[in-house]
Amino acid sequence: MASLFQLFSYLYTMAIALFDLLLLKAVLLIRSVLPGNMITHSDKLFRIITTQYFNLVEEKNPTIRYTENLRHRESRECAVCLSEFLEGERMRKLRCKHAFHKNCLDRWLEEYLAATCPLCRTEVLPEELVANYHLLRDHIENGGSYDDAAFLLSVLYGDGLRRLF
Protein backbone atom coordinates (compact mmCIF):
# COMPACT_ATOMS: atom_id res chain seq x y z
CA MET A 1 0.00 0.00 0.00
CA ALA A 2 2.83 2.39 0.90
CA SER A 3 4.61 1.74 -2.40
CA LEU A 4 1.36 2.42 -4.31
CA PHE A 5 1.04 5.75 -2.47
CA GLN A 6 4.66 6.61 -3.36
CA LEU A 7 4.03 5.76 -7.01
CA PHE A 8 0.94 8.00 -7.19
CA SER A 9 2.77 10.76 -5.34
CA TYR A 10 5.65 10.55 -7.81
CA LEU A 11 3.29 10.53 -10.81
CA TYR A 12 1.41 13.52 -9.39
CA THR A 13 4.65 15.47 -8.90
CA MET A 14 5.83 14.65 -12.43
CA ALA A 15 2.46 15.66 -13.90
CA ILE A 16 2.57 19.02 -12.09
CA ALA A 17 6.18 19.62 -13.20
CA LEU A 18 5.33 18.73 -16.81
CA PHE A 19 2.28 21.00 -16.73
CA ASP A 20 4.39 23.86 -15.35
CA LEU A 21 6.99 23.39 -18.08
CA LEU A 22 4.32 23.35 -20.79
CA LEU A 23 2.80 26.49 -19.31
CA LEU A 24 6.22 28.15 -19.31
CA LYS A 25 6.76 27.19 -22.97
CA ALA A 26 3.34 28.64 -23.84
CA VAL A 27 4.19 31.93 -22.12
CA LEU A 28 7.49 32.12 -24.01
CA LEU A 29 5.75 31.37 -27.30
CA ILE A 30 3.15 34.06 -26.69
CA ARG A 31 5.84 36.58 -25.76
CA SER A 32 7.79 35.81 -28.93
CA VAL A 33 4.84 36.72 -31.18
CA LEU A 34 3.80 39.92 -29.38
CA PRO A 35 3.91 43.05 -31.53
CA GLY A 36 6.96 45.32 -31.32
CA ASN A 37 5.14 48.00 -29.34
CA MET A 38 5.13 45.74 -26.29
CA ILE A 39 8.92 45.73 -26.36
CA THR A 40 9.13 49.51 -26.59
CA HIS A 41 6.90 49.74 -23.52
CA SER A 42 9.61 48.06 -21.45
CA ASP A 43 12.21 50.37 -23.02
CA LYS A 44 10.18 53.38 -21.91
CA LEU A 45 9.85 51.95 -18.41
CA PHE A 46 13.61 51.31 -18.33
CA ARG A 47 14.31 54.93 -19.33
CA ILE A 48 11.88 56.26 -16.70
CA ILE A 49 13.50 54.23 -13.91
CA THR A 50 17.00 55.23 -15.03
CA THR A 51 15.97 58.89 -15.21
CA GLN A 52 14.55 58.76 -11.69
CA TYR A 53 17.73 57.12 -10.44
CA PHE A 54 19.92 59.84 -11.92
CA ASN A 55 17.59 62.56 -10.64
CA LEU A 56 18.42 61.26 -7.16
CA VAL A 57 22.12 61.26 -8.00
CA GLU A 58 21.77 64.86 -9.23
CA GLU A 59 19.88 65.86 -6.09
CA LYS A 60 22.58 64.44 -3.80
CA ASN A 61 25.58 65.44 -5.97
CA PRO A 62 24.70 68.36 -8.26
CA THR A 63 26.53 68.87 -11.54
CA ILE A 64 28.93 71.80 -11.57
CA ARG A 65 31.09 73.39 -14.28
CA TYR A 66 34.83 73.07 -13.96
CA THR A 67 36.58 76.45 -13.64
CA GLU A 68 40.13 77.56 -13.08
CA ASN A 69 39.15 78.45 -9.49
CA LEU A 70 38.48 74.76 -8.81
CA ARG A 71 41.79 73.78 -10.37
CA HIS A 72 43.80 74.83 -7.32
CA ARG A 73 41.52 73.16 -4.77
CA GLU A 74 40.59 69.94 -6.58
CA SER A 75 42.30 67.18 -8.46
CA ARG A 76 43.08 68.14 -12.02
CA GLU A 77 41.97 64.88 -13.59
CA CYS A 78 39.04 62.49 -13.52
CA ALA A 79 40.01 59.26 -11.77
CA VAL A 80 37.68 57.21 -13.99
CA CYS A 81 38.90 58.24 -17.46
CA LEU A 82 42.23 59.77 -16.34
CA SER A 83 41.66 62.88 -18.51
CA GLU A 84 42.34 66.37 -17.24
CA PHE A 85 39.35 68.57 -16.54
CA LEU A 86 38.86 71.34 -19.08
CA GLU A 87 37.30 74.74 -18.47
CA GLY A 88 33.49 74.51 -18.59
CA GLU A 89 33.24 70.70 -18.47
CA ARG A 90 30.42 69.25 -16.40
CA MET A 91 31.60 67.39 -13.32
CA ARG A 92 30.34 66.03 -10.04
CA LYS A 93 32.00 66.57 -6.69
CA LEU A 94 31.09 63.95 -4.11
CA ARG A 95 30.79 64.37 -0.34
CA CYS A 96 34.20 62.73 0.00
CA LYS A 97 35.60 65.67 -2.04
CA HIS A 98 36.58 63.53 -5.05
CA ALA A 99 35.61 65.00 -8.42
CA PHE A 100 34.79 63.24 -11.70
CA HIS A 101 33.41 64.05 -15.12
CA LYS A 102 29.62 63.86 -14.87
CA ASN A 103 29.32 61.21 -17.58
CA CYS A 104 32.18 59.11 -16.17
CA LEU A 105 30.67 59.03 -12.69
CA ASP A 106 27.14 58.43 -13.99
CA ARG A 107 28.34 55.45 -16.04
CA TRP A 108 30.17 54.13 -12.95
CA LEU A 109 27.06 54.51 -10.78
CA GLU A 110 24.84 52.82 -13.36
CA GLU A 111 27.06 49.82 -14.03
CA TYR A 112 28.26 48.85 -10.57
CA LEU A 113 25.97 47.29 -7.99
CA ALA A 114 27.12 49.64 -5.24
CA ALA A 115 26.80 53.41 -5.77
CA THR A 116 30.11 54.40 -4.24
CA CYS A 117 32.97 56.75 -4.99
CA PRO A 118 35.32 55.02 -7.47
CA LEU A 119 38.32 56.01 -5.35
CA CYS A 120 37.44 55.66 -1.66
CA ARG A 121 34.14 53.71 -1.86
CA THR A 122 32.21 56.30 0.15
CA GLU A 123 28.48 55.75 -0.35
CA VAL A 124 26.94 58.09 -2.96
CA LEU A 125 23.37 56.79 -2.61
CA PRO A 126 21.83 54.52 0.03
CA GLU A 127 22.58 50.85 -0.60
CA GLU A 128 18.91 49.82 -0.47
CA LEU A 129 17.94 52.37 -3.12
CA VAL A 130 20.71 51.18 -5.45
CA ALA A 131 19.77 47.52 -4.93
CA ASN A 132 16.12 48.29 -5.75
CA TYR A 133 17.17 50.17 -8.90
CA HIS A 134 19.26 47.24 -10.13
CA LEU A 135 16.49 44.74 -9.31
CA LEU A 136 13.93 46.78 -11.24
CA ARG A 137 16.32 47.30 -14.13
CA ASP A 138 17.16 43.60 -14.36
CA HIS A 139 13.48 42.69 -14.07
CA ILE A 140 12.60 44.99 -17.00
CA GLU A 141 15.56 43.89 -19.12
CA ASN A 142 14.68 40.23 -18.66
CA GLY A 143 10.96 40.63 -19.19
CA GLY A 144 10.12 39.60 -15.67
CA SER A 145 7.60 36.84 -16.21
CA TYR A 146 9.99 34.16 -17.48
CA ASP A 147 12.48 34.71 -14.68
CA ASP A 148 9.76 34.78 -12.06
CA ALA A 149 8.33 31.52 -13.35
CA ALA A 150 11.75 29.85 -13.56
CA PHE A 151 12.55 30.98 -10.02
CA LEU A 152 9.26 29.67 -8.69
CA LEU A 153 9.77 26.37 -10.47
CA SER A 154 13.27 25.99 -9.09
CA VAL A 155 12.04 26.75 -5.58
CA LEU A 156 9.20 24.27 -5.89
CA TYR A 157 11.09 21.44 -7.54
CA GLY A 158 14.76 22.13 -6.87
CA ASP A 159 17.09 19.93 -8.89
CA GLY A 160 14.29 17.51 -9.72
CA LEU A 161 13.62 19.32 -13.00
CA ARG A 162 17.12 18.54 -14.26
CA ARG A 163 16.37 14.84 -14.08
CA LEU A 164 13.52 15.27 -16.54
CA PHE A 165 15.86 16.39 -19.32
Account of the 3D structure:
This protein has 165 residues and is mostly helical. It has a domain at 10-31 and 145-165. 61% of the residues lie in helices and 6% in strands. It has helices at residues 2-32, 36-60, 68-73, 102-111, 127-141, 145-157; strands at 63-65, 90-93, 99-101. It has a three-stranded antiparallel beta sheet with strand order 1-2-3. A hairpin with a 5-residue loop joins strand 2 and strand 3. Helix 1 runs antiparallel to helix 6 and helix 2 (36-60) runs antiparallel to helix 5 (127-141). The two termini are 30 Å apart.
From the structure above, extract its key features.
transmembrane helix; zinc; single chain; 61% helix; 3-stranded antiparallel sheet; 6 helices; mainly alpha; transmembrane; Znf_RING/FYVE/PHD; elongated; disordered C terminus; 165 residues
Summarize the structure.
This is RING-type domain-containing protein. The protein has 165 residues and is mainly α.
End-to-end gap: 30 Å
H/E series, N to C? Answer: HHEHEEHHH
Q: What strand line-up does the widest sheet have?
A: 1-2-3
Mean pLDDT: 75
Number of strands: 3
Q: How large is the share of residues in beta strands? A: 5-15%
Q: Give the overall silhouette.
A: elongated
